[in-house]
Write a structure and sequence with these properties.
This protein is 29% helix and 19% strand. It has ten helices and seven strands. A seven-stranded mixed β-sheet has the order 3-2-1-4-5-7-6, with helices on both faces. Helix 5 (113-119) links the parallel strand 2 (101-106) and strand 3. Helix 9 packs antiparallel against helix 10 (253-268). It is globular and about 55 Å long.
Length: 286
């Protein structure tokens, strides 16, 4: 693997030639796509880049998860809902690094999570729950914290969903969301390249939209709803990791199409319109 290209916060990605896709010049990957440095995350000492991205379909990997967790006041023994957790990599991370008891919830949760959690030494802390995010079976106020990364826009934009989700959080409990976002809301003249994973992108919103989405419930005090300082870099870092892991021609079609779409977006987006955000909220008493 080529040596890491330093990636300061807010680095710019240069254009990548897609004229011969999928037979692209992979020698240019390091020159074009910056890499989020592991040295910027001392709490991830012992992880390599493969471990940071393993089992995570979205951008940011455990870099993003770590920054989200820093917004929470996690203590050993707390009960945490990891909602829309995919393969459960974030659930294992939270249990391992913070000693919290995690309910790992996803509609397509793989059976392998039990073995992977046990291998990581946290089998007793991670409880897999295969469930629809709109039909959760937990008691009201059961959780001390809710964590949802790169998933809420798929199921949580309904006007009634924030109140529904907050119902599972105890009074004073915390919620953190990390997700792809647009710097501002989509308009009729938004470039086609920015409409990733259409029509799912229509549910991708700005940080301020998400702030209002939760504040309107009158149940949540939103303390943070901002663009992540590495929100653009997470896209480039993810593309670089995938291209260094596997040649495009060897990828399964869905992954190859996804990588192609992200590169087209990065080639067009010169001012960071497509990014990532974090939101932190606390449930009000009563």
């Amino acid at each position: 693997m080529p040596p890491a290209t330093p990636c300061p916060v807010g680095c710019q990605t240069r254009s990548f030639d897609l004229s011969n896709w999928p037979d692209v010049d992979l020698s240019r990957v390091a020159a074009v796509f910056c890499e989020v440095p592991l040295s910027a995350y001392p709490e991830l000492a012992g992880y390599d880049r493969a471990a940071v991205h393993a089992g995570l379909a979205g951008q940011g990997g455990l870099f993003f998860a770590s920054d989200m967790a820093k917004l929470l006041s996690l203590k050993p023994g707390m009960r945490v809902l990891d909602l829309g957790c995919g393969e459960g990599a974030t659930s294992i991370f939270l249990a391992k690094e913070f000693g919290v008891a995690v309910s790992a919830v996803d509609e397509d949760l793989p059976d392998s999570l039990v073995l992977r959690a046990a291998a990581a030494g946290v089998g007793h802390l991670v409880t897999p729950v295969r469930a629809d995010a709109r039909k959760l079976g937990f008691d009201p106020g059961f959780f001390d914290a809710i964590f949802t990364m790169n998933s809420l826009f798929y199921f949580g934009t309904d006007d009634l969903y924030p109140s529904y989700l907050l119902g599972f959080l105890r009074s004073g409990g915390e919620l953190v969301i990390g997700s792809p976002c647009y710097r501002s809301e989509l308009t009729d003249d938004t470039p086609e390249e920015f409409l990733l994973e259409f029509p799912a992108c229509l549910a991708v919103h700005s940080p301020q939209w998400w702030r209002r989405h939760f504040e309107r419930t009158r149940e949540a005090e939103v303390t943070h709803a901002e663009l992540h300082p590495r929100g653009v870099d997470f896209w480039a870092d993810r593309v670089r990791f995938l291209l260094e892991e596997q040649r495009p021609a060897e990828m399964r079609p869905s992954r190859r199409e996804m990588v192609h779409a992200i590169i087209r977006m990065l080639n067009r987006d010169h001012d960071g319109f497509v990014s990532h955000f974090m939101l932190h909220a606390r449930k009000r008493a009563g």
